[in-house]
Specification:
The complex is a heterotetramer, with two copies of chain A and two copies of chain B. Chain A contains eleven helices and 14 strands. By secondary structure, chain A is α/β, with parallel strands linked by helices. Classes of the chains: A alpha/beta, B alpha/beta. The complex binds thiamine diphosphate (TPP) (2 copies) and magnesium ion (MG) (2 copies).
């Protein structure tokens, strides 16, 4: 048990995996100087430049070459710097990495972690702020990780590196400095949600940074006597539908909150899947809170306007109980 | 005369491989046109067999290969089983990808063939990466990464070559230049002096060879493969060849001047050239014919076996996707 | 009014637009020989190679260059050949084309039609068969068109070329040869669904090829005395939520069918949006029919296994009424 | 002495522009560090001002420009209003993009500046396309498409240059080679002889210039711009320069040898060089100082105006997205 930041938790997870398995290596731009957010600090010094490798500004090659190296038995951690730049390597990720094992009839594997720092972060504007987790959940072959706390960024990074599947690993840039206790022995499995707090009045489903907001909202609601069960999905494929169904079975109310654009966001999947299966349990219409279908502006006041806040979550929950 | 015997042996082996490739593709074509057993597109390499035969001859079985949509010849020459390949083209159980990939995704990891690719140029970075993996693992294998002349206009050509050179990776890039990109003459859409010049500008030594001459291809490939294996850095082989047929089996190639196309195909037929060379070296016509007949018989048997094979079991649609969150468990 | 194929309908729409406006031009691989599906046949002959332009195999440049040309006032129709290859140009489409007008504060426009033939089509396997319409619906800045008939492929292509927005135009490869009557004067506006058939028992929402299946399913159901209201959305952004809500208000039952992977597909958005707004009207749980979250196999029997068929739609509707 | 007067006039104009660029960026830096009015990253071009000033001097106002994340200098030199630019950096109403783009997306279509870009190399194909549009429209404008040395390792470099050459487009590509890609020395990640050699291999004539010498840049740019305008085909200018500061304003660049970095910055300071040249040509120090003071005053006023400007109205978050399906109407 130790206190550390979200960035440091993943860094330690990687360092430990690299110590344990010489096939694990990291590759991306500027990693030798610790990475653009310092999330690789010290790793090049410990493991050398071959295993913590700089890269040219060649996202397609970073993704494609890491995939080739994965097929021959290494286990790359790929750094995309900003989730937005992964769009320079979409063919490699979606047409190649996600599909190869199936197309080749099981002959190949792509044990890769594809780190894509995402989300809005201090006026980064439209090309450095996106949250595209719904895209990757839609693509067979990919596992989608959306950690929200230092503990989960440790446990999930360990699990992602240990996985034989390609894991799209979406860290939220606004969480790098978040501190928390980390227990390296804490169990984790993809598809198991974290229950942030219990309550019988409403189920609030969220992930990534918004899960922290949901927990905060539950605090506001608790002070008013409303019990919210907050479920942090942690991974979107697989996702813990069972936990959500169990909770909605008790509360009868479902609110899903996320930072991404609401239209065709993963919140739609949660609402649809739950409504299909637990329609009879619902006491009120389910509801989503996501960003409007507009682009992310630079001006801080406009950027703020698009954020889903704890207060918005609490307000929506209250309305659903009214 | 040991030397000569060894040379003749190689020459016969190269001819045999080219005959097998052509016979395989003829049967594949018949499976598509006569038997209607192939639904998807297949891309034949008639006239280009020398590149596959000559380059693969230089490789060890544990060396690695990545190829394109036009990859039957490369795959066969790397050592894959034609019956398993034909089953794959027909989408059958027992296909080398279990019938799930088809012609454009043919692969046989058992012989180091890490896959054809349906996306032009995508294999260039992946092949560089396989070599990167070899470098990290520290063994002495090398990678051959083949692509067409059309692929040199896609970004992964630049990114993959630069990657291989920067990280000093053991990969031989092979540009199989058949002058065509589907229905388009590649030269019309390609600026500058071509594939080899582009490679050199990225710091990779490049050589051009007459791809209709299987001996020349084999010689140059042997030299470059040895160099890559020894120096652990990339090299580039530009093989000039000619696509004798259409882009796919159902493309009559009506867009090209048929007199020119036929003349080029005739002059550039690597099999006829090799037969002539061997005849001149004193090999009896009967022996040469027997090679062809053997290849034909082998591939007819491969097609027969494929046509008789069952389709994959329904569960195959859900296997080999992913371990975590597998659709075999939860698909919706 | 004339009878023609789906491919021909779009071809005529383009030809007419090009005759009327010299700024309209087409660019993509092999267009000079009519395009890989013959959908540009004769255009190079009529308009010359500058306006029906071949391209190198450079999807990123096709997309990026067409965007640059659009910004200076031309109106490109961009051909991606297979929707899958558009993933070689995702940065250009999503980070550049969709965002530029907003990022530049309204200074620029990208009047472009981005044709992406999609869908399963005779054993094309995993890299030539995808349906990713949900992705584009999730991206602010983009209009998403999914025509299902010759009439709509005519009207919608005309509207897409006339639009000042970038339109992701997804034709289904299995429909190229479909014949039907085309009225060039038929009105069309993005966001207006087509009512394929009326009925008061269940609302079936679909688009692209699956809308034709839904209509067929309605025929099966009608024979059994079940009235299905089939709504072909035609565009997914904007989408005709009002029409769907009106219908569900009457029928109380919503079934959404599409060819794409069901998980995080656009069907989830339709179900979620309707449930949020018309919960009280629902008499049964809404339901989706999409592909399982697996890759598209080559073997014809396996490929068939992933298809949503008219019979499956009819069966699901019947179950919902049981 | 008309000739000399004209030369001196140009020299003074070039100096003035460089001083204005530097003064603008100093104020931008102060806005970020001292005033905390800039939240997003800004990338300063200290030491690189000669490229912006020299190249833009060769352009007409209606010529077009596309630039990178490090684009303030280019934009200002193309003729944009510094007050509107500063408002953009502060995310204010009246910013040249209405406060919605910020530093990395700065644009002023009114002076032909079609945008900076937050994605390295993405502007290369877009700029080629702008030239394609000009070709289709049939007028005589040209495009300047600027990118850094790091951008030559991305696919769009190859695809965009090939496109411009194949379609014979009026675009001048400018590689602003400051030897760094963020915290990485570009040479370590770049194979071969560099930007100009790569351009030549794609059939584009390329010239290299000392980017610290604004007169040399202006001379070469004038020649290449004239050539592009006349011949209607692409050319390539490789400007060698040095990033005097960190990658962003908050990067202390601790990863580089500070003695080398400082020496390079000192020797390569294009403003000091131009001042020395003008002093040697007889221009009084007072006149040179007045140019600097004027630039400083102008940019202090720009910052003051920006800091006083209001933030954009809330509705701006929903405008300029799309006409059809606009979020101003229906956003969810
Ligand atoms: C990225 C991409 N764009 C387009 C295609 C369609 N396509 C398949 S093969 C081909 C021509 C390829 O030409 P070349 O690389 O010379 O190989 P060849 O077919 O001549 O062997 C094209 C355009 C594709 N598969 N992938
Ligand atoms: C595709 C992409 N990858 C990575 C980045 C992050 N990034 C921003 S600037 C930069 C360095 C660019 O170097 P260069 O092109 O030489 O331009 P310079 O910063 O030196 O002006 C990097 C890696 C990006 N913006 N886009
Ligand atoms: Mg070719
Ligand atoms: Mg640089």
């Amino acid at each position: 048990m130790a206190r550390m930041t979200y960035a440091e938790a993943a860094r330690q997870a990687i360092a430990e995996a690299m110590r344990a398995d010489p096939r694990v290596w990291c590759v991306g731009e500027d990693l030798g100087r610790g990475g653009v957010f310092g999330q690789y600090r010290g790793l090049a010094e410990e493991f050398g430049p071959e295993r913590v490798s700089d890269a040219p500004i060649s996202e397609a090659a970073i993704m494609g070459a890491a995939f080739g190296a994965a097929m021959v038995g290494t286990r790359p951690v790929v750094e995309m710097r900003f989730a937005d730049f992964a769009l320079c390597a979409t063919d490699e990720l979606v047409n190649q990495i996600a599909k190869a094992r199936f197309m080749f009839g099981g002959q190949s594997r792509a044990p890769m972690v594809i780190r894509q720092p995402m989300g809005m972060w201090r006026s980064s504007a439209a090309q450095h702020s996106q949250s595209l987790e719904a895209w990757y959940a839609h693509i067979p072959g990919l596992v989608v990780a959306v950690p929200a706390t230092p503990q989960d960024n440790y446990s999930m990074m360990r699990a992602a590196i240990a996985a034989d599947d390609p894991v799209v690993y979406l860290e939220h840039k606004d969480l790098w400095a978040m501190e928390g206790e980390v227990d390296p022995a804490a169990p984790f499995a993809f598809g198991q949600a974290r229950h942030r707090c219990q309550g019988d009045d409403i189920t609030i489903v969220a992930w990534s940074k918004t899960a922290n907001h949901a927990e905060e909202a539950a605090g506001i609601l608790a002070a008013e006597g409303i019990g919210a069960h907050v479920i942090d999905l942690r991974s979107l494929w697989p996702w813990d539908r069972a936990a959500v169904l169990e909770s909605v079975g008790r509360t009868g109310r479902l609110l899903v909150a996320h930072e991404a654009v609401q239209v065709a966001g993963f919140g739609a999947e949660v609402v649809a899947a739950v409504t299909e299966r637990a329609f009879g349990a619902l006491k009120a219409p389910p509801r989503r809170l996501g960003a409007p279908r507009t682009l992310i502006p630079y001006a801080p006041n406009l950027e703020e306007r698009l954020r889903v806040t704890p207060r918005m979550i609490a307000d929506a929950a209250r309305e659903m109980l009214a | 005369m040991r030397e000569t015997n060894r040379d003749i042996g190689r020459s016969l082996a190269l001819l045999t491989m080219m005959e097998r490739i052509r016979a395989f593709e003829r049967q594949a074509e018949l499976a598509a046109t006569r038997d209607r057993l192939v639904l998807g597109a297949i891309h034949l390499s008639y006239g280009q067999e020398a590149v596959a035969a000559g380059v693969m001859h230089a490789l060890r079985r544990d060396d690695l290969l990545l190829s394109t949509h036009r990859g039957h010849g490369h795959t066969l020459a790397k050592g894959a089983d034609p019956a398993a390949m034909m089953k794959e083209l027909l989408g059958r159980a027992g296909g080398c990808c279990g019938g799930k990939g088809g012609s454009m995704h043919i692969a046989d990891f058992g012989v180091g063939m890490l896959g054809a690719n349906g996306v032009v140029a995508a294999n260039i970075t992946i092949g560089a990466g396989a070599a990167h993996g070899i470098r990290l693992l520290g063994d002495d294998r090398i990678v051959v990464d083949i692509f067409g002349d059309g692929a040199i206009n896609r970004g992964p050509f630049l990114e993959g070559l630069n990657w291989a050179a920067v990280f000093s990776l053991p990969v031989l890039f092979v540009c199989e230049d058949n002058e065509w990109s589907a229905t388009t003459r590649t030269a019309r859409m390609t600026a500058g002096a071509g594939a080899a010049a582009r490679a050199r500008a990225i710091g990779i030594e490049a050589e051009t060879v007459d791809g209709a001459d299987v001996e020349a291809v084999a010689d140059l490939a042997a030299e470059l493969v040895a160099r890559v294996r020894r120096d652990r850095r990339p090299a580039f082989l530009h093989a000039r060849t000619w696509r004798a047929g259409g882009h796919t089996y159902f493309d009559p190639a009506a867009y090209r001047d048929s007199a020119e196309a036929e003349a080029r195909a005739r002059e550039g037929d690597p099999i006829e050239r090799q037969r002539a060379r061997l005849a001149a070296a004193g090999i009896a016509a009967a022996e040469l014919d027997a090679i062809r007949a053997g290849a034909m018989a082998e591939m007819e048997a491969a097609l027969a076996a494929a046509a008789a094979a069952p389709f994959p079991p329904a569960a195959a649609a859900f296997s080999d996707v992913q371990d975590i969150g597998s659709p075999a468990g939860e698909a919706y």
